[in-house]
Amino acid sequence: MCGIVGYIGPKQAAPLLLEALEKLEYRGYDSAGLAILGGNGLSVCKAKGRLSVLFDWTEGGATMPGTAGIGHTRWATHGEPSDVNSHPHLSHSGRVAVVHNGIVENYAELREFLTEHGYEFQSDTDTEIVAQLVDFYYHGDPVKAVRDAESLLSGSYALGIAFAAHPDLLIAVRKDSPLILGLGEGENFIASDIPALLKHTREIVRLDERELAVLTRAGVSVYDRFGDPVEKAPEHIAWDVSAAEKGGYAHFMLKEIMEQPTAIRNTISPRIKDGEIDLGLVHITEEVIRAIDKINIVACGSASYVGMTSQYMLSKMLHVPVTVELASEFRYSDPVVDEKTLTIVISQSGETLDTLFALREAKRRGAHIISVVNVVGSAIANESEDVLYTWAGPEIAVATTKAYSTQLAVMYLIALHFARLRGTLSDAALSEAVAALEALPALVEEMLGKREQMQYLASLFFNLRDIFFIGRNIDYALCLEGSLKLKEISYIHSEAYAAGELKHGTISLIEPGTLVIALCTHAPLREKMVSNIREVKARGAVVIAFTDENDASVPAVADHVIALPSCAPLVLPSMPLIPLQLFAYYVALLKGCDIDKPRNLAKSVTVE
Ligand code: F6R
Question: Which of 58, 221, 398, 492 lies 20 to 30 angstroms, CA to CA, from 38?
Answer without folding.
Answer: 221
